[in-house]
Amino acid sequence: MKIGVPSEIKAQESRVGLTPLSVQELTNHGHEVFIQDNAGFGAGFENEDYQKAGAHIVSTAGDIFNDSDMIVKVKEPQSEEVKMLRENQLLFTYLHLSAAPELTKGLVDSKSICIAYETVTDENNRLPLLAPMSAVAGRMSIQAGAHSLEKPQGGRGLLIGGAPGVRPGNVLILGGGVVGENAATIATGMEAKVHIVDKSEARLKELQMKFGDRIVPLVSDEINLQDYVAETDLLIGGVLIPGANAPKLISREMIKNMKRGSVIVDVAIDQGGCVETSKPTTHANPTYVIDDVVHYCVANMPGGVPMTSTLALNAATLPFVLNLAQNGYRDALNSDANFLAGLNVCQGNVTYKAVADDLDYEFVDPSKAIN
């Protein structure tokens, strides 16, 4: 199969779809790989690294899309890339379609076959291709939040870990999944006071086993969330409904009751955000202030650490890329219901129910769409 990797063109995005080691694995199996000129440069990979692995360096994105049977990316295609997709071409990347009606329409109209990293599942109904970036984003959320709490950034002027004789800051983490667990790892390491809210008592018990008395677990149905929000210095939004818009857990009224200079990091912004006042930002201009509360809502947080992120992502995605290349999408998806869950759009049909429901498309069963 001919596999193409274009440069990412989303603002401040330096990750790349394949590393040289991934390319080497694909070329060893007889596949052709096309890498756009300097596509890996921002993540620390040179053209020469890819050439040594057997890739062809191609000058333009147009050539990549024209010459490839499958496009492997990191972020969702931008409008100019959507126009280059063609019927029956494979696209394998993060999509987050429930929060992107225009992108969804473009992919439907292209009649391409679009598999989303974030909805591929495993035997335990976890999300193995979302998990690496969720882990990175969770860890970054505390770094970003701690920095945003500094006075020059518009924050309260509070050191999250406190100081001798000074209490640490309060961190409230919404969601005990991969984002929440990794946020807690960094927050507890910085000696903040950490509360984690989740609806699952079993999950909270797991987290308490890991962190002990360094966290305070809170069952969402048993607390008045507004009270905790009002007392927090740094709020991390890490809730997720796979493939669907994130629930709005934090209302504008709750924001008004927060401390002046407190900070929200809405990691769920890729899926629309879990805070009513959230809107997507970029690494170049990551924050804004509403009601004296700093909002950090960068939609591609792991893009800020592209080397780490690319390596972590490829470790998870390469077996799936190789499966598609070796067997074709029909056999690869038909033989694995968990992989089939990644199919979001296929030849003009929306094949992921949450996306169809959120954006008012007719849902087509993915197993029927590919046969």
What secondary-structure arrangement, pairings included, does this model have?
Layout: E1 2-5, H1 20-28, E2 32-36, H2 47-52, E3 56-58, H3 61-67, E4 70-72, H4 79-82, E5 90-93, H5 101-110, E6 113-116, H6 131-148, E7 170-174, H7 178-189, E8 193-198, H8 201-211, E9 215-219, H9 225-231, E10 234-237, H10 252-256, E11 263-266, E12 287-290, E13 293-296, H11 306-334, H12 337-340, E14 343-346, E15 349-350, H13 353-359, H14 366-369
Parallel strand pairs: 1-2, 1-4, 2-3, 4-5, 5-6, 7-8, 7-10, 8-9, 10-11, 11-13
Antiparallel strand pairs: 6-14, 12-13, 14-15
In short:
With 371 residues, the chain is of the alpha/beta class. Helices cover 36% and strands 16% of the residues. An eight-stranded mixed sheet has the order 3-2-1-4-5-6-14-15, with helices on both faces. It has a seven-stranded mixed sheet with strand order 9-8-7-10-11-13-12, sandwiched between helices.
Overview of this protein structure:
With about 375 residues, the chain is of the alpha/beta class. The protein folds into two domains: about 1-120 and about 305-370, NAD(P)-binding Rossmann-like Domain (Rossmann fold, 3-Layer(aba) Sandwich); about 130-305, 3-Layer(aba) Sandwich (Rossmann fold), CATH 3.40.50.720. It contains 14 helices and 15 strands. It has helices at about 20-30, 45-50, 60-65, 80, 100-110, 130-150, 180-190, 200-210, 225-230, 250-255, 305-335, 335-340, 355-360, 365-370; strands at about 1-5, 30-35, 55-60, 70, 90-95, 115, 170-175, 195-200, 215-220, 235, 265, 285-290, 295, 345, 350. The strands form two sheets. It has an eight-stranded mixed β-sheet, sandwiched between helices. Strands 9-8-7-10-11-13-12 form a seven-stranded mixed β-sheet, with helices on both faces. The longest helix is centred in the last third of the chain and has 29 residues, at about 305-335. The chain is globular, with a radius of gyration of 21 Å.
